[in-house]
């Protein structure tokens, strides 16, 4: 199942920073990573997002709803704004972007199990017409219900 969250990519190439990109997901606790360049920072962000969301799902925790990217700002959502830490970044090279992850690639217990279930005839006919993969449809529906329950 695909999940997409906004991430803040802060750039600082001063001498004190060995890795110039700092990435933060404002909707997720303890969500920081770094990258040597944009590609590396995005790859690291995808990996972090997948691991964090896997933690939420596997531990039965509420998966937070992603913020609207248009409501975020690099300054207003600075993860260090309430700390005594002087966080410097170059505004012209920093940006906000959506990051998407396929959680199926991260979940440890993704091995299929055999189940027998019954569905109404109309649902079977409709599913066949739509060429639905029943296992995927059921898995997606359970994930959606799990998200709604929290």
Automatic annotation (TrEMBL):
InterPro entries: TTHA1013/TTHA0281-like (IPR035069). It comes from the Bacteria. Gene3D superfamilies: 3.30.160.250. This is HicB-like antitoxin of toxin-antitoxin system domain-containing protein. The lineage of its organism: Bacteria, Bacillati, Bacillota, Bacilli, Lactobacillales.
């Amino acid at each position: 199942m695909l999940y997409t969250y906004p991430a803040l990519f802060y750039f600082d190439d001063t001498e004190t920073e060995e890795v110039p990109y700092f990435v933060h997901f404002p909707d997720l606790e303890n969500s920081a990573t770094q990258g040597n360049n944009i590609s590396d920072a995005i790859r690291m962000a995808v990996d972090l997002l997948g691991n964090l969301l896997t933690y939420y799902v596997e531990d039965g925790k509420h998966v937070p709803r992603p913020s609207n990217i248009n409501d975020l700002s690099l300054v207003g959502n600075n993860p260090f704004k309430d700390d005594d830490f002087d966080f410097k970044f170059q505004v012209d090279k920093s940006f906000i972007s959506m990051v998407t992850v396929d959680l199926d690639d991260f979940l440890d217990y993704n091995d299929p199990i055999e189940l027998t279930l019954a569905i109404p005839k109309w649902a079977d006919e409709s599913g066949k017409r739509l060429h639905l993969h029943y296992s995927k449809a059921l898995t997606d529906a359970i994930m959606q219900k799990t998200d709604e329950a929290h």
